[in-house]
């Protein structure tokens, strides 16, 4: 499926995604992220680097909060007793990765009418740093 990065993520949408990320990160006791203009551009232009995709049909107008909520919901599949990368938890672990400092957001549309939200994180952690999950993916504070 070919993606066309024509649907530009608005500043408001990007800020919603960032705000939701930082609310979740606060629950895990990790520092907030900053939006990075360069990462936004890269995510928007070609989705290079660490990409997290959320597919949805264009008729469903999703807010940045809903996108972040959907990614974060993978926490239910994450085992804090056995930390590490598992299929189905990559969005969640990327969101709360303690050593990540910046993020970028992009939107794309596909030829079949689906839309995608792309997030890019720097430094990326949950894929390249196997074995570091214990210190970077902290359980939520009670």
From TrEMBL:
Domain of life of the native organism: Eukaryota
Limits of the SCP domain: 12-129
Pfam families xrefs: CAP
GO CC terms, sorted: extracellular region
InterPro entries to which the protein is assigned, alphabetical: Allrgn_V5/Tpx1_CS, CAP_dom, CAP_sf, CRISP-related, SCP_GAPR1-like
UniProt xrefs under PROSITE patterns: CRISP_1 (PS01009)
Listed name of the protein: Golgi-associated plant pathogenesis-related protein 1
């Amino acid at each position: 499926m070919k993606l066309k990065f024509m649907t530009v993520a608005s500043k408001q949408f990007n800020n919603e995604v960032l705000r939701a990320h930082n609310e979740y990160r606060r629950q895990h006791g990790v520092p907030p992220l900053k939006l990075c203009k360069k990462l936004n551009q890269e995510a928007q232009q070609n989705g290079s680097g660490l990409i997290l995709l959320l597919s949805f049909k264009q008729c469903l107008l999703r807010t940045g909060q809903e996108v972040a909520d959907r990614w974060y919901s993978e926490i239910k599949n994450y085992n804090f007793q056995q930390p590490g990368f598992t299929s189905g938890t990559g969005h969640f672990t990327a969101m709360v990765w303690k050593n990540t400092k910046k993020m970028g957001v992009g939107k794309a549309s596909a030829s079949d009418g689906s839309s995608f939200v792309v997030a890019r994180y720097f430094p990326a952690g949950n894929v390249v740093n196997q074995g570091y999950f214990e210190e970077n993916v902290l359980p939520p504070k009670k």
